[in-house]
Amino acid sequence: MFWFFGGCALAGAALVALMPKLVHSAFALVLSLLGVAGLYWTLGADFLGGVQLLVYVGGITILFIYGIMLTPRDATRWSLGTLVLPGVLVAVPVAVLMSVAWQGLAAALKPAAPVTSAPTTDAIGTALLMRDQYLIPFELSSLVLLAALVGSVYLARRRKGG
Amino acid sequence: MPLLAAEGVSHLGGYFFISSAMFVLGIFTMVTRRNAIYVLMGAELILNAAALNFVAFARHHGGAGALDGQMFAIFIIILAAAEAAVALGIVLQLYHHFPTIDVSKPDRLGD
Tell me, what DSSP letter sits at residue A82? Predict the structure, then answer.
């Protein structure tokens, strides 16, 4: 199950990076996000997997597809090619860095904690509303969402004569 | 009951491999593409990879911190949603000002 969802996430990410057309990349992104939601479920994070499904797969993807439809098609043609070399030059060192980090981490890791398979929704709701835990970030994130809502409406409206 | 729980904890390395591969592919997407929407997609991949890492490592650590990783991931999702909405608004506005969404073309901020 882990390798199925992990394969979905990896294949989706690879297709996003390599697909020639923007719409195909958007649907590959859906595959990748679904894989990540499944990985959350394999980690016992059931609520988080549902949130991932709702917000990412259901929401952000729709935003992307609207963005694709509202922009010109000739601006969305394949723009790989000239920048492959810089891309490789950036990506390969990061990959090497990751593997080095893992070499160091694997030696220092303690054995895995025992698995508790309890539903997490209740615990997350409690943690969000406890004053000494996540109440302030929770309220601030509602402020951020309000600002983003107003700001994106302001940005995306069509100005008269503009 | 959580779906499919109790399986993945033994291979933290697999989660780390997948999240770092997604991170690298996201960086590759952001660097190689000139289209602004592709750049946003790369950013989403990177954010997802980071959130997955948070959850996997917190689960491995266990105890009272196991939930903290999930909380971080939830806040990452909240901020990513806000970021995507605002960034796509900016992309549309960019397209109204310039006839392109190629991120290397626009060269001025005002009119």
Answer: T
CB within 8 Å: B45 and A156: no
- Which CATH number does the domain housing residue B49 bear? 1.10.287.3510
Alpha-carbon span B83 to B81, nearest angstrom:
5
Question: Residue B67: its chain A contacts at CB < 8 A?
Answer: 120, 123-124, 127
> What tens digit of pLDDT does each residue of A18-60 get?
887 888 888 999 999 999 999 998 888 888 999 999 998 888 8
Task: Provide the token pair at A140.
Answer: 């601030």
Q: How far apart are CA A102 and CA A108, in angstroms?
A: 10
Give pLDDT, residue B6. 44
Of the candidates B13, B59, B82, the beta carbon closest to that of A43 is on B59
The CATH class for the domain spanning A1-72 reads mainly alpha
Q: Which residues in chain B touch residue A119, judged by CB atoms under 8 angstroms apart?
A: 1-2
